[in-house]
């Protein structure tokens, strides 16, 4: 998972054991850097509040309660090692600083002299990056337009990976949300249930909300009643994906085709985005538009893989023309195999369970190589959204 920090850009801070004067100084220093509570909590209530709020930073009134501050640091270091702890003192003292550092405090500050250091610490915590080895790979799939097979590819990629990895599929298609019915799954909870508690979400809560397919793929579904989802903010989605990336080795996100704040966030934090199209003029033109939107979102071409679904030798648009007009190579094709695909969809089965040797099942199995290949993908044939010859389709893209 790519770490971009909280979507809001502001750290979530809990204050423990601060008097009114200290509260005032902290508010003045961190007005633009943090989401601050209305009051400080006592040491006795601190763990319960922290467990509920899951803050980025805990600022502790150190000087007036040294023993309680050290005990709290010890407990937080065991339970929440990623939380940044700051000891706020009345005056600098070498022995106190050493004791705080040994207990696990990242910073020992005295205000107002250390105001800049406190700002930098809190700002950095908002963009805290977990070690790469701690987080799984996040793959988002999005279609050039509706009906190009995004959900089918997401499900089957996950199934191929689930043989030896822990895999989660997140259904983020607010327009359709067909992952559960296509896998013949019924789930009590859905992504809508997690949104309301995303700020305190942990791996245990996520595991309780998913449903497991017989292929061992875990699925976080979209509810049948789409109105029950409500608004999924970028911050909510960031929290859900972050927890998922800690719990699973692979997180596959079905983004559908409708772009909203949550999908935008998912694309930005994904290690790889698979853009799916079909080999027809309308779909390729919409893929071109999608590529332009990727540029606006800051998605580098190296992170994008282009997959052409329902490919056949007599396709109206060739792979060379698609590559020239989109500015990236066709990473893979999935054969047009309507008989086996439709049977799998209608029966709630995987294509490989219908016919393991069919063309579509074979091609989908090879897509795993796309996900595990971290090398850069160079544009094929030039052109693309930035300009260039673009092949015979260029007139449709406004470049003639």
Summarize the structure.
The chain has 400 residues and is of the alpha/beta class.
Keywords:
Rossmann fold, 13 strands, 400 residues, 17 helices, five-stranded parallel β-sheet
Would you mind describing this structure in some detail?
By secondary structure, this protein is α/β, with parallel strands linked by helices. The protein folds into 2 domains: 11-126, Response regulator (Rossmann fold, 3-Layer(aba) Sandwich); 134-397, 3-Layer(aba) Sandwich (Rossmann fold), CATH 3.40.50. It is built from 17 helices and 13 strands. It has helices spanning 20-30, 43-53, 66-79, 94-103, 115-126, 150-161, 179-182, 191-195, 203-209, 234-247, 261-269, 281-297, 319-326, 338-347, 351-354, 359-366, 368-372; strands at 11-16, 34-35, 57-61, 84-89, 107-110, 137-143, 167-171, 211-212, 218-220, 250-254, 272-277, 304-311, 330-335. The strands form 2 sheets. Strands 8-9-7-10-6-11-12-13 form an 8-stranded mixed β-sheet, sandwiched between helices. Strands 2-1-3-4-5 form a 5-stranded parallel β-sheet, with helices on both faces. Helix 10 runs parallel beside helix 11. The chain starts with 10 loop residues before the first strand and ends in a 28-residue tail after the last helix.
């Amino acid at each position: 998972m790519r770490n971009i920090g909280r979507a809001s850009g502001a750290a979530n801070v809990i204050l423990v054991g601060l008097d009114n004067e200290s509260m005032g100084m902290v508010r003045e220093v961190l007005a633009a850097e943090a989401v601050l509570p209305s009051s400080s909590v006592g040491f006795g209530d601190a763990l319960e509040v922290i467990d509920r709020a899951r803050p980025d930073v805990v600022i502790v009134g150190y000087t007036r309660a040294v023993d309680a501050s050290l005990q709290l640091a010890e407990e937080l270091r065991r339970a929440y090692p990623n939380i940044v702890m700051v000891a706020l003192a009345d005056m600098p003292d070498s022995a106190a600083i050493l004791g705080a550092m040994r207990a696990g405090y990242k910073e020992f500050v005295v205000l107002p002299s250390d105001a800049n250091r406190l700002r930098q610490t809190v700002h950095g915590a908002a963009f805290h990056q977990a070690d790469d080895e701690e987080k799984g790979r996040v793959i988002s799939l999005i279609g050039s337009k509706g009906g190009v097979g995004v959900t089918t590819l997401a499900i089957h990629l996950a199934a191929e990976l689930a043989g030896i990895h822990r895999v989660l599929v997140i259904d983020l298609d607010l327009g359709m949300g067909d992952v559960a019915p296509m896998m013949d799954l019924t789930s009590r909870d859905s992504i809508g249930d997690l949104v309301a508690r995303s700020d305190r979400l942990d791996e245990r809560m996520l595991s309780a909300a998913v449903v497991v397919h017989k292929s061992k793929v875990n699925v976080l579904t979209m509810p049948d009643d789409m109105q029950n989802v409500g608004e999924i903010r970028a911050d909510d989605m960031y929290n859900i994906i972050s927890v998922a990336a800690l719990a699973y080795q692979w997180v596959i996100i079905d983004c559908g085709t409708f772009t909203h704040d949550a999908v935008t966030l998912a694309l930005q934090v994904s290690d790889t985005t698979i853009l799916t199209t079909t080999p027809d003029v309308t779909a390729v033109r919409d893929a071109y538009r999608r590529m332009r939107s990727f540029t606006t979102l800051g998605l580098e071409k190296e992170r994008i893989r282009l997959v052409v679904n329902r490919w056949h030798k007599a396709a109206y648009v060739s792979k060379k023309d698609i590559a020239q007009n989109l500015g990236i190579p066709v990473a893979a094709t999935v054969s047009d195999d309507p008989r086996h695909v439709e049977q799998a969809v209608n029966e709630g089965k995987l294509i490989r369970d219908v016919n393991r040797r069919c063309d579509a099942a074979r091609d989908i199995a090879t897509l795993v190589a796309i996900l595990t290949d971290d090398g850069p993908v160079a544009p094929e044939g030039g052109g693309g959204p930035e300009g260039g010859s673009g092949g015979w389709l260029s007139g449709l893209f406004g470049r003639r």
